[in-house]
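Quick one: structure for this chain?
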Amino acid sequence: MLLPLKRYFDFTGRSRRMEFWMFQLFVMLVNLALMMVFFAGFPLAELAAISEAESSGGANQVPPQEVLAMFGPLFWLGLALVMLWGLFIFIPSLAVTVRRLHDRDMSGWWYGGLLIASFLPIVNIFAMLGFLVLLVLMFLPGTPGPNRFGPDPKDPGQATVFS
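Got it. Here's what it folds into:
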């Protein structure tokens, strides 16, 4: 689960499916824990009361400063932790995805192009389909034996020992 963090800026070589998916599971578990902290400080009851008062014809609108004051310190701590975690995990997520594509004998620039295309208007609709294709590629096994990106991570010993 933590191997991609040890290989933080390593965009070379190959990564197995197990490394990729265990890292994704780790990221999801940390995200879940941080979102629980984030939503624990969310003033849902107070915001619902304000919404109910405004929808029932109440002419008094609550100033934005008072709405922001309703959010407790746990909310702001959760928000800060979610943002810091997102910044921290961005590069290892990119790197492990590129290495996983290398295991399929594909260039990591396919992923880079897909990320860039997702920021372009209209093109981003087609990029969504590209992300679905990428998801399927992450499930497929890597190329057996060495490829242009390095030795097979499933068989680091290789058969060349006996040749």
